Amino acid sequence: MTTTSEPDVIIVGAGLGGLICGALLAKLEGRKVLVLERNPDIGGKIMSYGRLHDPDLTEEDYRTSLAACGHSKIVYSEPDFPTIVEKHGLFKNWIVDTGWHQMSVGPRNRFAQLATALGKKINISPTVGFLYFEDGRFQQLSEIVAGWPKESQDERRRVAQYTSRISLEQSHAYDHVDYQAFLETVTTDRRVIDYYGLMGCYSAGLNDPATVSAGEIIRVNNMNNMAGTHFQRGGGGGVVTGGFKNVATVFAEVILENGGEIRTSSPVREILVEGSTAVGVRFRPGNGPEEQVRAPVVINNVPARHLGRVLPDRYWPLDYRQRIKTQFPLAGLLGFIGLREPIETGDGRAGDFSIRRLPGTEDLGVIGGASIFSFEQTSEADPTRAPEGKCLLNTWISLYPENPFGPAEINNDGLIATLVDRIYDFFRARYPQWDDVYEWGYFTQARDMYGLSVSPGQLGERRLPVRHPTLHNLFHAGDTTEQWGIATDGVGHGATLTVSAVTGKDYTRLLAPWGR
Q1: Which residue of 1, 41, 247, 379 has the fewest C-beta atoms within 10 A of its own C-beta?
Q2: Element (H, E) at 221
Q3: From-to residues of CATH 3.50.50.60 in the chain
Q4: What is the rounded distance in angstroms from the CA atom of residue 506 to the CA atom of residue 425?
Q5: Which residue spans of the chain are classified as CATH 1.10.405?
Q6: Inter-residue contact 486 to 465 (CB < 8 Å)
Q7: Alpha helices (H) in 71-189, listed in sequence order
Q8: What are the tens digits of pLDDT across the range 57-76?
Q9: How far is CA 334 from CA 96, 104, 393, 409, 442, in A?
Q10: Which CATH class is domain 141-227?
């Protein structure tokens, strides 16, 4: 076993949390950073594939990457997947991501703010519009509300004002209160409850407001309000122009430009501990012999539930082990569909479309009584995603990996096959031109779209701390640790907390006040 030269900071894992931490420490603290990644590429769950990334990607490499990065696999394709790759040029002509990667406050999200602080720019294509399916057609939310009785309209405004006055500190009282229960304590108006319940589910990526943390949704909603963003007018959501992998690339560039090193295909075998201090790691670069490298700071970006392969459980106190054991990720059924032209061409074509009860799912026994179904014409917001004139359609349905009301949904192959059928049934019924414009489509079973589901019992003080509770010089980053916010945007906040713990400085000050 050989020993490499010693950096100032070792980061285990080149996911977004690790890369942001490394970039901040390399550029703003002058630390010599070494990032070790077990996979052949950086990015963790925010991978992108296709024309601007690797147009010569093979089907085998794609399937391997999906399994490693998103714990995903292809469960349906029409035509067969090799035909989608070869005949339709999936990787030569299109750009697809690992999953559905929306972020709060669109172009003003936290990781974009941090890139700006580091002298870089992340281009965001905002989605514009949020349309809800009611009375047989998609309508902007404002249209739906305009059709309510005046009493319900007034009540919606009152509830909005009430929640906007809940401070960040006060919101944590609702971390382990489900959003359905919260709404039913502040209003009895069923229209208002259903309206906000749908929006909470959409933001959290879950199917039932009874499984959504009210505290987290209150914080995210208030952040959007303070940032001045709005789903319907644009800015409340968005996609990274050219693919989400570009986010990882930006922060990796900062590390490399400031003397750091990133080693891929270099799995860490063990975090080295001497006494009560983390002192380095043992890893295997490529197919070579194992090496040891020591550093005064180790930052772990591996989710805690997978950390046992490099750090024994005994280093976690009992309470933390219990938290890790009960953590579960956000999972779902994701669709990627190539069309000859967009199917939605009017107001909101570059926005998000959502259906509270996908027809034909009412009797499937899913949590929430029927499946929420959402889709976006991603290439209408970001034209780089599809050939000129064509349309990349992304779809999403939540599938629960842990089910407080029955069997886990993510493992139910029969349910997944039925949901795919119902999605195609809806598109064909809604759009008479569907079969004429449809070119290809495939669906993935994604077990880990986001490392921690936005559910009561997992957030707030139940998240794992960025500073390890028993080992000195060991810190944690990523989407399962201390932070608030949804998905990639939350990871940006968490990274500032990790770097603050490492340096003793307040790195949350790089974020706008409403995102700290």
Answers
A1: 1
A2: helix 214-227
A3: 2-51+242-327+455-515
A4: 52
A5: 141-227
A6: no
A7: 81-86, 90-93, 110-117, 141-146, 150-164, 168-171, 179-186
A8: 999 999 999 999 878 999 99
A9: 11, 20, 11, 14, 8
A10: mainly alpha
For 307, the token pair is: 């950390």
Question: Could you tell me the CA-to-CA distances from 203 to 251, 351, 391, 453, 503 in Å, in that order?
Answer: 26, 14, 24, 11, 33
pLDDT tens digits for range 341-395: 999 998 889 999 999 999 999 999 999 999 999 999 999 999 999 999 999 999 9
Q: Measured between alpha carbons, how far is 442 from 464 in angstroms, rounded to an integer? A: 36
Residue 233 confidence class, pLDDT cut points 50, 70, 90:
low
Q: Is 83 helix (H, G, I), strand (E, B) or coil?
A: helix
What pTM, to 2 d.p., does this model score?
0.95
Angle at the Cα of 50 from the Cα atoms of 48 and 53, rounded to 5 degrees: 70
The residues, ordered by sequence, that sit 6+ positions from 237 with a Cβ below 8 Å of its Cβ are 102, 103, 104, 106, 126, 127, 231, 352
Token pair 């795919």: residue: 420
Report d(CA 288, CA 423) in Å as an integer: 47
Distance CA(323)–CA(466), nearest Å, equals 14
Radius of gyration of the chain (CA): 22
Instruction: Retrieve residue 497's tokens.
Output: 């907390």
Name the DSSP letter for residue 464.
B
Query: In the CATH hierarchy, which fold is given to the domain comprising 2-51+242-327+455-515?
Result: FAD/NAD(P)-binding domain (3.50.50)
> Helix crossing, 214-227 with 190-204: angle to 10°?
90
Q: Which two tokens stand for residue 199?
A: 């929006």
DSSP 371-424: --EEEEEHHHH-GGGSSTT-EEEEEEEE--SS-TTSS-STT-HHHHHHHHHHHH
Burial of residue 474 (CB within 10 Å: 0-12, 13-18, 19+) is buried
Omega into 79 within 30° of 0, i.e. cis? yes
